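Slide 14.
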Amino acid sequence: MSPISRGFFGRRQPVEDTSRVPPGQYVTRDFPVLSAGPTPHTALGEWSFTISGQVDEPVSWTWEEFLALPSETPTVDIHCVTKWTKFDTTWKGVSVDTLLSAVNTEAPYLTAWSDGGYTTNLALDDVTDGKAWVAYEFGGAPLESEHGGPARLLVPHLYFWKSAKWVRGLTLTPDDEPGFWETYGYHNHGDPWLEQRYQGD
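Slide 15: predicted structure.
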């Protein structure tokens, strides 16, 4: 698998409030589809979400159990490393705070892992205190497979490769372990306001 192209361009949209656009980004109404490999299609009856790793005891939810958890509907701007930004996207999902409340851990990091083998690393500080969700709806409809459905991680304050598509679990870790794109030279943190696209940025 080769890294996604730096030269991707979508349909640009005029912007009135440029303070919402991170450096080097342009705004689009589109929702481009960019993936590291083929789109997985996991049957909902076989789907589960698991928190494991450095926890007192792993915990897992079936699809039905996951949908029964308290949900939130954040409206957020999202920013892709390929330089597009999309304003006011509306999602529905479960806060990572809610999920982590089911375990005891002192781990400072986690690896999000997905169907298809994708992983990305995050500090716990970047996914707690209302900063991240596992989302299963977009724009009031079930999340389409091409955009990471049935569920994807949503971490809107970081570049969107950190919002892992087709996410199936979080592994809590004592150390920061680079994920898929990070091992290909992408920045370990990925703050769009600091233009942390690639290692050395």
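Speaker note: The longest strand covers residues 84-95.
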